[in-house]
Each structure stands twice: as structure tokens, then as C-alpha cells.
Amino acid sequence: MWQRRVAPGVLTGIVAALAAFSGASAQDAPEPVAVTVDLGFMNTAGNTEVTTVNAGNKLVYTAAPLVLTQTFGIVYGRTGDSTTTNQWKAGARLDYQLTPRVSLFGQGRFERNTFAGIARRFEEAIGVAAVLLDAGGHKLTAEAGASLNQQTSSITDLTESFTAGRAATEYRRALTEAAFFTLGGEFLPNFETSEDYRINGLAALVAPISRAIALKASYEVRFDNLPEPSFQKTDRILTTGLQIVF
């Protein structure tokens, strides 16, 4: 039987090349799980007694072509012995990537904001998302879809069910390798009551102070054209604090 022997030097070179390629692939592959936690706290005493806490998290699990995202947030405040702010938000979303730039999604969201007259609001939505721009540190995404909603008033304790649409966009600008600015908004029209629509906007700036910790400031505007009786149409929320990346 004819055999061909490979010189030891050649074999060693092949093994080294494969090891280097494997190492490079492992480094280039994105982490399957990404977690960020936001924390903020303010307390004053003396002539004014105010305590404000804001906290939240975002978990993203990627198993291509699926991407699972879980979010949670709370803003709680007290002035003296009275609670003046109590807002809770939570959500879960599953994206199925059709192409690197287009995906289908389904999501569920919960909100509680008694100081806006909302005892609880549930939303189940489906839609399509697209990356319109992703170059030179600029990224622009857009989404469109529809949802079912169940909203309970903290005033009357009555629950209203309705269908709604959703159009959203988000712009992200990379300022440095780790610092970035985001600006997003969403339009939520009630398909059954034309004057009942909501518009939400959020701007955020993240500036790292170490590999795992960053300073974060965000400003949120929430507009409800048909709020609960005796409540204003617009809420504005400014939060600052730390963001921890795991």
C-alpha cells in the first residue's frame, strides 16, 4: 500500500493555523447573553424630604435566528410620608430574523402607573422590524405592528379592551467605542376610538467610566391624548444613575 508521510513541520503548521482560526472565530462570535442593569437613587432630608428610586434591567438572549429580550423598570418616589410616583413596566419580546436587516416579532408588555390613572395595562403585539441604516456609527431602525390591549382604570376599576396599532423608530449614535446616544419614539393609535392615541419618546446618553460601569441619563416624554378623568395628558421623567453591564 502506498502511503504519503507529512513532514512534522508541515503538520505542526496546519494544527497551529486551525487553532488560530478557531480562536479568532470564538472571539468574533457575539456573546449569546447580554445583561444590563440600571440603578438610580436620590434622597433629601431637612426642609424637604424626598426619596426617588429608579431601577431596571434588560436581558438579551440570542440563538440565531431567534432573539429573546426581557425588560423591567420601576420609578418610585416619596415626598414626606406620601408616595408621589409609582410606575412599573415589564416586557418580553421574541424576534425571528428573516434576514440580517428584517425580523418578525411578538411581544407582551405590562404597565402600572396609578399617578396617571392606570391600575394596569397589558399589551400583546406582533409586527415587523427593519434596520434602515447601520453604518459609520449610525443605526436607524423602524417597526410597525398591531396589538391587543387590556387597560384597567385606577379611578373606576373598569377594564377596557381594544385593538391598537404601533409605529416606532429608534436612532443610535456611537460617540466612542463604548459611549452612545439613543433617541426613540412610538405612536400607538387606538383603532376603535380615533382620539385615543398615545405618543412616547425616550432619549438616553450612556458614558462608560469603566469596562462594566457607565453613567446613564435618560429623558422620557409620555403623551396620552385621552387620559383618565382629572389627569394631565403629558408626563415627563428625567432619570440619572449607573448602568452595569454583565
Estimate nothing, just give the exact number of structural domains.
1
Distance between the termini: 58 Å
Mean pLDDT: 89
| CATH homologous superfamily caption | monomeric porin ompg
Task: Quickly give the structural class.
Answer: mainly beta
Range of strand content: over 45%
The CATH architecture name reads: Beta Barrel
Rg (C-alpha, Å): 24 Å
Q: How many strands?
A: 12
Count of alpha/pi helices: 1
CATH topology: Porin
* Spatial order of the strands forming the largest sheet: 1-2-3-4-5-6-7-8-9-10-11-12
Q: Globular, elongated, flat, extended or rod-shaped: what is the shape?
A: globular
Uncertain segments of ≥5 residues (pLDDT<50)? 1-28
Order of helices and strands: HEEEEEEEEEEEE
Largest sheet: 12 strands, antiparallel, barrel
Percent helix: under 10%
CATH class: Mainly Beta
Describe this structure in words.
The chain is mainly beta. The protein has one domain (32-245): Beta Barrel (Porin), CATH 2.40.160.40. 9% of the residues lie in helices and 67% in strands. It is built from one helix and twelve strands; from the N terminus they run H-E-E-E-E-E-E-E-E-E-E-E-E. The chain has one helix at 8-28, and strands at residues 33-44, 50-63, 66-79, 82-97, 102-113, 118-135, 138-153, 159-174, 180-189, 197-208, 213-224, 234-245. It has a twelve-stranded antiparallel beta barrel. The longest helix is centred in the first third of the chain and has 21 residues, at 8-28. The chain is globular, with a radius of gyration of 24 Å.
